[in-house]
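Predict the 3D structure for this chain.
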Amino acid sequence: MNIQNDLTVKDLERPLQQFWELSGRKIHLIRKEYDTSKGSPVFTEAGKYTTRGWTEWTQGFQFGSEIIQFDATDEYEFLEMGRKATVQLMAPHITHTGVHDHGFNNVSTYGALRRLHEEGRFDSGEWEKTFYELALKSTGAVQASRWTPTADGEGFIHSFNGPHSLFVDTVRTLRALALSHRLGHVLFGEHDEPISLLGRLIGHARSTANYNIYYGEGRDSYDVRGRTAHEAVFNVTDGRFRCPNSQQGYSPFSTWTRGLAWAMCGYPEQLEFLDTLEDEELEPYGGREAVESMMMKAALATCDFYIGHTSLDGIPYWDTGAPALHELGDYTQSPADPYNEYEPVDSSAAAIGAQGLLRLGHYLKAKGEDEKGSYYWQAGLTVAQTLLAEPYLSTDESHQGLLLHSVYHRPNGWDYVPAGRKIPCGESSMWGDYHFRELALYLSRMVADAPYYTFFTGIENTNKS
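Done. Predicted structure below.
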């Protein structure tokens, strides 16, 4: 990856203005043309959003995008769209016991509305704030209840595949547990046993770091530092780790880049969250130094792997072990080609990963590590600059998507291949569009010298003494 060290956030001001204009038009287009009776919009086919019945994990991204649009532009109509849809349609996601996606669906909606309320961005009463906070308390507890204990004394929030399955994705949904904990909530189990949501957040983060992320320490024959496995499989009878696996990547021993990106983004934002807690809260889980070191090790390894295994312009192909990738030669020494004939890129991984690079860089610089922090910060800006222009920014007024060249499930063949092409390209996903907007909001606030954007902004830590 060719990191643009002279790039500044101010250089992105004009591209960001164009971005938000396009984003608003895309939101209106989806509302006008998409048939909601078919379910949540998931990804596009020939520029039109369609659905895919796997899990309902994208509806919060649709309405969350509307709320983000208001956040960035102050256009009240987008707030009302997202606010109304959240109240009317998102309640089932709060109590959905069958998925690991609570931090996606509910923090993107109820969490965003609560944050904007606290920032005084719209008129609402105390009762509305209480409504959002009750939703956030509940969603964190429901997510935490999907718990599988492991033989090492830890455990994990298991994926929708079942209690044996630890997905790397779920690190980014720990936001739900973080907010619930910050609001003073506790999960009660059998015999009224109190279960700490912070404890489960840290336990899951540690299990993911231990079993889904590699550090070049000789774990197996494919132990390359920063590589990630989409899924870690456990024997649920005794809690022992059995093997890596992959649902959406090419293999357990290659790196599905969107899974890599989830870890890149999830760990830095949890490091930011830990800064809001008192040392005493972290003592039962090994203490601040141990918890932060675990998360920092995972964040650095995954971000370094991304930088070293992506194209010159910062856009990754969908899997670093994709079987025809060798046909492109050393793809790290040229810009990504979304229109090649062999393997698709995944721009959604870039949008997610860029935010992780920026947050890690910002965090390190705030800790006094200016040189190291600038390295990741500039890498994040480089990726963002690439995404904010064609061929990734969707400028076609009839295309409902915002971020082009996203990939959903390459092994299952779910992605649309245009006529005359051999691989998927030119399409969008709801998670890609949402995280593109989240990335743009992060940068837009920087451009405007506005308050720093975090998922936990404005929630007083009721657990602090």
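The two ends are 45 Å apart (CA to CA).
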